[in-house]
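Exercise 7. Given the encoded structure of a 112-residue chain, write a plausible sequence.
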């Protein structure tokens, strides 16, 4: 499994970890049906990986993904768009992007 954070996204995740006093925590990344691109993405910080999750690293950030979500989000690239003040998920598993590309943060049905 591979999930990639762009440099901009990794920098934003580090800022969020610091602001939330969760430095060193794992970034949980998950997906559910719904949202503007057919998927609703979820990102949160967790102290340790859950037993039904698989972890990977993107740079200095450890990312945990529930096993059942891997087929839907394997190969995703997570970017941060400063102008939109939100994360954007580029998902190679989507046949079409539904208009907003599965964005997070500034899109109805985005990340929580």
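Solution.
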């Amino acid at each position: 499994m591979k999930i990639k954070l762009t440099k901009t996204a990794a920098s934003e995740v580090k800022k969020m970890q610091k602001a939330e006093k969760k430095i060193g925590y794992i970034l949980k990344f998950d997906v559910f049906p719904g949202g503007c691109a057919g998927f609703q993405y979820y990102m949160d910080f967790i102290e340790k990986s859950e037993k039904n999750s698989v972890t990977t690293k993107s740079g200095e950030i450890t990312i945990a993904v529930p096993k059942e979500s891997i087929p839907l989000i394997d190969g995703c690239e997570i970017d941060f768009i400063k102008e939109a003040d939100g994360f954007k998920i580029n998902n190679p598993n989507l046949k079409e992007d539904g208009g907003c590309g599965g964005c997070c943060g500034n899109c109805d049905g985005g990340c929580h």
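Remark. The chain has a mean pLDDT of 84. Students should compare their own answers with the one above.
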